[in-house]
Design a protein that fits this description.
390 residues, alpha/beta, Alpha-Beta Plaits, Rossmann fold, 3 domains, nine-stranded mixed beta sheet, four-stranded antiparallel beta sheet
Length: 390
């Protein structure tokens, strides 16, 4: 493909990404893969270039662009070399016409920028959400013996964490193939450390999803005790079993939940758990480095629904914890509606609970919990709070 053809290809992919964002369709990475699947003529360098152009345009536009061309023109506005490729030759994009639509630059849609400001996130800080994220891994302590770590990494602030450049192909390493390491953001690892799961305890991962945090808890518990991975999404929960087998994590019990009727499936654990982790569904505003188009998908109505779900799940979790036990609330969000405000609301509703400020090597206090972020510690954005039942 010529350089101009690569730009036109990125414009076509961006049209798909924009349409999917408006319709809550497939994520950008899947759309890019599908686009190339029917275009065998494109080589590896072409694929890499188109992908980079696509994500460059996504990161450059705050509001949802009108078209893929408008998104790419936003990038070309500040890049004369890219602008010159709009020459109409061959498969290149058409010549730029004065006055044609150019997407608006920005961090996010205006309403979200306002919510960030209200949550103590400055514009300068928020811009780091559009950087590329590093590749973080967790050493799996369930795999005994010396570990030959892949080259190019360095220790992170997580107890068992390492960090690599974003382009590292860690899945091809021997350590990964043997299950000795797991891909997991440093912030995610730190939130698991807040749980402080111990061997022999009864621990419930209430929103386990595909089980990334469950596996970290299993390692901390040394495959002893009772570990429950619960979720309402059957498909995501089904991915845990093969991951657990690869990691050597045994004794994990999966529980499929019925939304709004979670206690029906968990009644046998009422008042019995030493610890419950609530990694609640949320807006994902802290993960934009990995999914930058997600900021085009979120609406105020969706944010309100997430906040309501989080409050309800916190109340469910409270029923599961024994006196003297602990509850850890986590969201990958930087908005107070899904963080500090949730912690305050929980304590107001439950007089027999107290907050315990997490102690971590990263993050800054936010209300009754900690905020982890790209600009303080280089992690994804998280809010984490820990509560103790009297």
């Amino acid at each position: 493909m010529t350089p101009g053809a690569r730009v036109q290809a990125a414009i076509e992919v961006l049209d798909l990404v924009i349409a999917a964002a408006r319709a809550n369709g497939a994520p950008a990475d899947r759309l890019i893969s599908d686009w190339f699947r029917t275009r065998r003529f494109a080589g590896s360098k072409d694929r890499r270039a188109v992908r980079e152009l696509t994500y460059r345009a996504i990161r450059a536009c705050g509001e949802v662009p009108e078209t893929g061309r408008a998104a790419m023109l936003r990038v070309a506005t500040d890049d004369p070399e890219l602008s010159a490729l709009f020459d109409g030759s061959g498969h290149a994009p058409a010549i730029i016409v004065a006055g044609e639509p150019v997407a608006e630059a920005g961090i996010a849609p205006h309403w979200l920028v306002d919510r960030f400001a209200a949550s103590g996130v400055s514009e300068a800080d928020a811009t780091t959400l559009l950087d590329r994220a590093p590749l973080d891994i967790r050493v799996n302590t369930l795999k005994a013996g010396p570990l030959d770590m892949p080259e190019g990494g360095e220790r992170s602030v997580a107890v068992h964490g390492w960090r690599y450049p974003p382009e590292t192909r860690i899945e091809q390493s021997e350590a990964y193939l043997q299950g000795a390491i797991e891909v997991q953001d440093t912030g995610s690892q730190l939130t698991c450390e807040v749980v402080a799961a111990q061997p022999g305890e009864t621990v419930i991962d209430l929103c386990a999803g595909a089980g990334g945090k469950t596996l970290a808890l299993a390692a901390a518990m040394e495959n002893t005790g009772t570990l429950i991975a619960a979720d309402a999404d059957r498909t995501r929960l089904s991915r845990l079993a093969p991951r657990a087998e690869r990691a050597g994590a045994t004794g994990i019990e999966t529980v499929l939940l019925n939304p709004n009727k979670e206690m029906q499936a968990l009644q046998r654990f009422a008042g019995a758990a030493d610890a419950v982790l609530v990694d609640a569904p949320c807006s994902g505003t802290g993960t934009w480095r990995r999914n930058p188009e997600a900021r085009w998908r979120l609406t105020e109505a969706q944010l309100a629904r997430y906040a309501a779900i989080q409050s309800r799940l916190l109340d469910v979790a409270a029923e599961l914890v024994r006196p003297g036990g602990r509850l850890v609330f986590v969201t990958c969000s930087l908005l107070d509606e899904e963080g500090a405000d949730q912690a305050v609301g929980f304590l107001r509703r439950h007089a027999d609970w107290r907050a315990e400020m997490p102690v971590l090597p990263a993050g800054t206090p936010r209300g009754e919990g900690l905020r982890l972020s790209p600009w303080h510690g280089g992690t994804d954005g998280f809010f984490v709070a820990r509560f103790h039942r009297l």
